[in-house]
Specification:
The complex is a heterodimer of chains A (354) and B (111). Chain A has 354 residues and is mostly beta strands. Chain A has a single domain, classed as Porin (Beta Barrel). Chain A is built from 5 helices and 16 strands. The radius of gyration of chain A is 22 Å and the shape is globular. The N and C termini of chain A lie far apart (63 Å). About 2% of the residues of chain A have low confidence. By secondary structure, chain B is mostly helical. Helices cover 71% and strands 0% of the residues of chain B. The chains are: A mainly beta (354), B mainly alpha (111). The interface between A and B is large, with 74 and 57 residues.
Chain lengths: 354, 111
C-alpha cells in the first residue's frame, strides 16, 4: 500500500524521461527553412518625455536582443534592458534613476513542427500584451495598460509551446510552463505554473484565447485572463483587448484598444491613430497598508488614452499620446511624446550571403 | 509535494499527447510547400504553370505575413535571407506561428 504512494514519483520521473526521449526522437521533422540562419543583434532604443499629473520625466532607454541560432533547431535568445529616468523635482532640478535587467534569456529547441521546448528565463505566457506587444517599438501606446502587473511577468524554468493548424481555417496555439522561485534582486521570479491557449482564424484574422496562472508559494494566488485580437481585411484597423483577474492583491481589469493606419490617404499613409479605454478594479480584501503599498493600483481606476504614431521609416517612429486617468479624488493627465528606433544587424560579416 | 507530482504528470501527459499528435500528422506532409514536388513533376514545357504557382506562393506568403505579423507591428524591410531566417525562427517561438506559415512568410520575405 505504501509503495503505491512512495514509488509513483519514480514512475512519473521515468515517464517524463520516456516522454522527453519520444519528443526528441521526432526532432528530424523540425525546422528546415533552406537558409543557414546567422546570429543577429536586434532590439530598440527610445527617448520619451512623460508628464504624469504634472510630474515631468525624461527616459532614454535601450533594449538589445541577441538571437543566436544553432543548427536548424536551436535558438538562444537574450534580451536586456537599460533606462535612465530623469525626474524633475520641486526645485526644477532633474534626478536620474538608472534601471536595468534581463527581460529574458532562454534557449529554444524546435522539437517538431508542433512543439518548441523552452528553458531559461522567459516572459510568462499570460494573454498577449507581455509577450507580443510590450516592446516599445511594437506597442501602439507607450503607457502600459493598468492590468500589466497581472498579465506581465517573468518565469525561470521550462515551457512547452507551439502552434499548428487543426483545419484550413483554424490554428491552435498553446503554451504551458513551470517556473521555480528565484530571489535574485534583478531576476526574481515566483514558483508558479500556468499556460495559454489560443484559437486563430487566419481568414478572419481573429485570435481569441485564455490564460491561467497559479502561484505555488506564499498566499498561492491564481490569475486568469481572456484576450482577443482582430484585424479587418477591408480596412487597416486592428482591435485588441484583454481581461485579467487575480485572486491576490493585483485586482482585475480590462482594456480595449483600436489602431487605425491611415494608409488609404496617401498624404497620411504613415500615420496611425490609436485609442484605448480601460478599467481597473482593485482587489476587495486589501488592508490599508497594502493599498498604500500598491500606490496607483490601490484604487479603482478608469483611463482613456488617445495617441498617434508617425512612421518616418519602417523602423523609426515618432509617437505622442494624451490620456486621462480617473481615480477617486486624484484625476490626472498623462502626456507622452518621443521616438523609437528598432535596429537589426548581423553578428557575422557574411550575414547577407545565402 | 502532491501538487508537484500532479504538475509533473500534467506536463508529461501533455508532451506525450502532442508528440503522438505530431507523429500521426506527418504522414500526409500536408504542411510542406507544394511547389517543390510540383516542380519536379512538371515537364520542361510547363514553365507557365510554374510561374503561376510561384505567383500563388508569393500571394499566399503575403497573406500569411499580413495575418500573422502585421497584426502586431508594421512591416519591416526585407533583410538578407540568412538574417530573415533567424528573425522568422524567433517570431515562430514568440508568436506561436505555425510551421507552414513560417515557411511561407520566410519565402515571401526573401523573394
Amino acid at each position: 500500500m505504501m509503495c503505491r504512494f512512495v514509488c509513483w514519483p519514480r514512475i512519473v520521473a521515468k515517464a517524463g524521461l520516456l516522454g522527453l526521449f519520444f519528443v526528441f526522437s521526432l526532432a528530424g521533422q523540425a525546422q528546415d527553412d533552406g537558409f543557414k540562419a546567422v546570429p543577429i543583434l536586434t532590439g530598440s532604443t527610445a527617448y520619451f518625455t512623460r508628464v504624469t499629473a504634472g510630474q515631468y520625466q525624461d527616459a532614454p532607454s535601450v533594449s538589445p536582443l541577441l538571437l543566436l541560432p544553432l543548427g536548424d533547431k536551436w535558438l538562444i535568445e537574450a534580451k536586456g534592458s537599460y533606462s535612465d529616468t530623469f525626474t524633475k523635482n520641486a526645485q526644477g532640478d532633474y534626478n536620474g534613476t538608472i534601471s536595468y535587467g534581463m527581460t529574458y534569456g532562454q534557449i529554444d529547441y524546435i522539437a517538431n513542427r508542433y512543439m518548441t521546448l523552452v528553458a531559461g528565463r522567459f516572459t510568462t505566457p499570460f494573454n498577449i500584451y507581455g509577450e507580443r506587444l510590450a516592446p516599445n517599438w511594437v506597442r501602439a501606446l507607450q503607457t502600459s495598460p493598468l492590468t500589466s502587473p497581472v498579465t506581465s511577468g517573468s518565469a525561470l524554468g521550462g515551457m512547452v509551446r507551439g502552434g499548428f493548424p487543426t483545419t484550413d481555417s483554424l490554428n491552435l496555439t498553446y503554451a504551458l510552463y513551470f517556473s521555480s522561485n528565484n530571489t535574485h534582486h534583478l531576476l526574481a521570479t515566483d514558483r508558479s505554473t500556468g499556460g495559454r491557449i489560443g484559437f486563430f482564424l487566419p481568414h478572419q484574422r481573429l485570435e481569441i484565447g485564455a490564460s491561467f496562472q497559479q502561484v505555488l508559494q506564499a498566499d498561492r494566488p491564481h490569475s486568469s485572463g481572456i484576450f482577443f485580437e482582430w484585424q479587418s481585411d477591408h480596412a487597416p484597423v486592428t482591435v485588441r483587448s484583454e481581461y485579467a483577474r487575480s485572486s491576490g492583491t493585483k485586482g482585475s481589469g480590462y482594456w480595449i484598444e483600436s489602431v487605425y493606419r491611415l494608409s488609404q490617404i496617401s498624404a497620411l499613409r504613415r500615420l496611425e491613430l490609436v485609442g484605448r479605454g480601460e478599467q481597473f478594479f482593485v482587489a476587495s480584501n486589501l488592508s490599508a497598508a497594502t493599498i498604500k503599498k500598491l500606490g496607483a493600483l490601490g484604487k479603482d481606476t478608469n483611463e482613456a488614452d488617445f495617441g498617434m504614431n508617425y512612421y518616418l521609416r519602417s523602423d523609426v517612429r515618432a509617437s505622442a499620446s494624451y490620456g486621462r486617468q480617473f481615480v477617486l479624488g486624484k484625476n490626472a493627465n498623462l502626456w507622452t511624446i518621443g521616438m523609437t528606433y528598432r535596429f537589426v544587424m548581423p553578428m557575422l560579416p557574411q550575414g547577407g550571403a545565402r | 509535494m502532491k501538487m508537484r507530482f500532479v504538475l509533473a504528470a500534467f506536463f508529461v501527459a501533455g508532451a506525450m499527447s502532442l508528440a503522438m499528435a505530431s507523429s500521426a500528422g506527418t504522414g500526409g506532409s500536408k504542411d510542406a510547400p507544394k511547389d517543390t514536388a510540383a516542380a519536379a513533376a512538371a515537364p520542361a514545357g510547363q514553365a507557365d504553370n510554374l510561374a503561376a504557382q510561384k505567383e500563388n506562393m508569393h500571394l499566399e506568403g503575403e497573406r500569411r505575413f499580413r495575418s500573422n505579423c502585421a497584426r502586431c507591428h508594421a512591416a519591416p524591410p526585407k533583410f538578407p535571407p540568412r538574417m530573415m531566417a533567424t528573425i522568422v525562427r524567433h517570431m515562430r517561438v514568440r508568436a506561436a506561428i505555425t510551421d507552414q506559415d513560417m515557411r511561407l512568410i520566410l519565402r515571401y520575405m526573401t523573394e
